[in-house]
Every structure is written in C-alpha cells, then in structure tokens.
Amino acid sequence: MAATTDTEHEEQSGTDGPPEPAARRRGRAGRIVARTVSVFGELLITAGLVLGLFVVYSLWWTNVVADRAADKQADRVRDDWAQDRVGADGPGALDTKAGIGFLHVPAMGDGDILVEKGTSMKVLNDGVAGYYTDPVKSALPTSGEEGNFSLAAHRDGHGAKFHNIHKIEKGDPIVFETKDTWYVYKTYAVLPETSKYNVRVLDPIPKESGKEKAGHYITLTTCTPVYTSRYRYVVWGELVRTEKVDGERTPPKELR
Length: 256
Known about the structure:
The protein is an alpha+beta fold. The protein contains three helices and eight strands; from the N terminus they run ααββαββββββ. An eight-stranded mixed β-barrel has the order 1-2-3-4-7-8-6-5.
C-alpha cells in the first residue's frame, strides 16, 4: 500500500488546517461585542433625541401654539366688548362662544387668562381656563346667585396658565373681569394635594375649604406635582366686592 500524502491525511482527518489561535478568537469576539455596544449606543442616542424632541414639543411648542390661539380668542372678546360695552341682552351679557371674561391672579404673574365654557382637553389646550359644567356645574358670578365659580387650566404645556398656582397664598387677590364688572375675590384656603377624583372641592359650598354657609366663591384647580397629573392642586377664594367697569377699563386697586 502506498503511503498517504499530507493532503490526503488532512482530508481523511476532516480538518482544514491547524486550530485557530486563541488570541484570534478573542479578537473576533471583541469586535462583535464592540459592534453590539456601538449599535446599542446609537439606539440610546436616537431614543434620547426623540425623547428630547417630545419634551420640547410638550413643554414649549404646545405653549406657543396655545398662546397664539388664546390671544386670538381674547382679542375677539375685547373687540366685541369695545364695540358694544353693554350688549343687546343688557348689563353682564356674555359672549360664550369666544369666552366669558378674563381671570387676573397677580401672584401667578402679570397678564390675564381668558375663561371659556367647559374643561375638556379641546377647550383647555387652547391656552385658556375653563369653568366646570360637569361633574359639578359652576356658578357664574354674573348670575348674581350664590355658588362656586370653579375653574381649571393646564399647569404645564398648552399655555400652562396655572403653572404658578403654588405661589398663591391666603389673602392674595383673584379678580375676574367681565364686560362691565370687576369681581374681586380674596384667597382664603389652599389645598396643595388631593385626589383627581375629589369633586367635592367644586361643591357650591366647598366644605373642604372650611366653609359651611352659601356664598360667592371661586375655585382654581390644576394638576400636581408639576409635570404630572397624579393629583389636583386647589385654591379657594371668596368674593369681597364688585366694581363697575369705567370707560377706560381702569383695573381695581388689586391689579395696579
């Protein structure tokens, strides 16, 4: 029998050559790990950018869009008032389509907040405050009847009109401006946190604020803590007086 050659021996043994060095195997594994880490890092960067853009959209751009919408609606209300200060329906007539008046809270900052009917996202996302129609119907101050003028607005995004609600303290003024009357309230109670399902804070007689008798109250509600909607922040005020609007729309002393 002829002796087998080296090539025949390799074919018969089923190997293609000497074993791969351990250092080469470790190098190949290291490159795979490096590529995996690189891909994972790029995914994290992309996710971070997407999250950052979402935050910018939620906390800045929605404010820009909402403020534009609110300003447009507010201009319409004031134009209507200027053209017909009393209105065909007599003193206190309201334009409920564009807004019923303006809320002024010096403790939260300068400027006014347009108030419209309803507290749905569709209403509040326009950068306004809305008065409750459900689950407890709000009592409008213009009706002259006792009750609770209860309002809601966003604390973050979409105008964030109640962002600084935590700055309101007992004794601070809250003023509601209509076509022909200034309604001046005085803050008497603050509830920093309560369940978002607690509708008792909206009652005509808000007993959770310490009141036991009917009166003319105002309630401001919004989400808390900041940047969440887990709980509700509540501020209560009581009407102390009214002032008729003069030809120059001179604000009451609390706003000067």
